[in-house]
Design brief:
Length: about 400
């Protein structure tokens, strides 16, 4: 079965800001050609590494974000490199880049220049604050984009400083929105036959991560602040158990089921009293504190799995707090075959990799191949798309253009 973007060819000129976008496009079946400088993408130098010493072809960080892609090298700092890029852009469906606004335009290789010879091109630009506006040329990091997008307002203890989210989540939010927008632009191109430019501001993509904070202000003009470990309501939090922690979120009419469960273990008699049936009473600070003491005593008697399976039977929303190693043994992820073994012949073994974050019934996303070695597809791409000979490619390599 073919992927949703089967037959779509993408030039990937992104750095950290856009690597997740092009990964999603590659998982959906697009042929993604990653354009790296001759020295290699900076992500190749980020550990951990498969071996004991750093190596550009053994970065697990690079492996994760560049599965299913091809790799070519090209020096955009030379006129010859820019000319080659423009020829490549004539033969693809999508260009995705994350340079500072105007960088490629100053080389006469931005969207306006490229669409003259390829009017069907979808050109996606991912930047911290968009192509235009008062902050367009501001520099930013993942952390500052989290702050400018508002999510740091809500993360951390009330009396302490804001706490950043890990794992480059601002960049990945921008990448996810960019991939979706690119798909929409491709669909639109199928209707009218023309490409367009997709301008992605990561700050704007981060802002929805505040979830109910935005509609709360729009509806009631309430400004949400971070609560830290202080619970917003009773029955919403993390509790200790024998082998870790369990998360509880009392949603819906489950109070009776929960107190019945506690009662079977001679706990929480007072929680079954009539006063506790009133949600307003339960959400008083003193009630919340009392519940936490009782419920923590209860959860400490069981393992995460015991609590989780029994909560499923009783239809009470609970979930184990997983460690990274727990995910590999998770029955649901195993059933869905989420972790996929990918062959890395150069390493002499298969590497278990996280699979696609989505599945379509008729056009399934799939892991087809390992992350590329540096410049692995120079010959294939330059010969196949531009008709260059082996001697041409060797000459370009010798001059450092590729």
């Amino acid at each position: 079965m073919k992927g949703a973007l089967e037959g779509v060819r993408v030039l990937d000129l992104t750095g950290f800001l856009g690597m997740y976008c092009t990964k999603l496009l590659a998982l959906a079946g697009a042929e993604v050609i990653k354009v790296e400088p001759p020295t290699g993408d900076p992500g190749r130098s980020i550990g951990p590494f498969f071996g004991e010493t750093p190596h550009p072809n053994e970065s697990l960080f690079f492996f994760h974000f560049h599965l299913n892609k091809k790799s070519i090298t090209l020096d955009l700092g030379t006129p010859e490199g820019v000319a080659l890029f423009k020829r490549l852009a004539d033969r693809v469906d999508v260009v995705v880049e994350s340079f500072a606004p105007g960088f490629l335009s100053r080389l006469d290789a931005g969207y306006e220049a490229l669409k003259r010879s390829n009017p069907r091109l979808v050109y996606t630009a991912i930047t911290p604050f968009g192509q235009e506006g008062p902050r367009a040329h501001w520099k930013a990091s993942d952390l500052t984009l989290q702050a400018m997008g508002g999510v740091l307002t809500l993360n951390g203890e009330m009396a302490g400083p804001p706490v950043g989210l890990g794992a480059l989540q601002a960049y990945h939010a921008g990448g996810a929105y960019a991939a979706a927008a690119t798909g929409v632009a491709l669909y639109y191109r199928g209707l009218i036959g023309e490409g367009q430019m997709v301008d992605v501001s990561i700050q704007e993509c981060v802002a929805p991560g505040q979830q109910e904070a935005l509609p709360s202000y729009q509806t009631w003009e309430r400004v949400k602040t971070r609560r830290g470990s202080q619970k917003a309501s009773l029955g919403f939090g993390i509790y200790p158990c024998k082998d870790g922690y369990i998360f509880l979120q009392l949603i819906g009419d489950v109070w009776g089921a929960l107190t019945a469960w506690l009662g079977e273990h001679a706990l929480g008699e007072e929680l079954a009293e009539e006063a506790w049936s009133d949600p307003e009473f339960r959400n008083k600070p003193e009630s919340t504190q009392r519940f936490d003491v009782v419920f923590a005593d209860f959860t400490a008697r069981f393992t995460r799995e015991e609590l989780f399976l029994e909560s499923l039977r009783r239809r009470i929303p609970m979930a184990p707090v997983q460690h990274a190693q727990d995910l590999l043994a998770d029955p649901q992820l195993q059933f869905r075959q989420f972790f996929v073994p990918v062959s890395f012949p150069e390493l002499g073994q298969e590497v278990l990799c996280p699979g696609p974050p989505f599945r379509f019934s008729e056009t399934p996303a799939a892991l087809r191949q390992r992350a590329p070695l540096l410049a692995e597809h120079n010959g294939e791409v330059y010969k196949g798309l531009l008709g260059l000979t082996r001697e041409d490619v060797a000459a370009l390599r010798s001059t450092g253009i590729i």
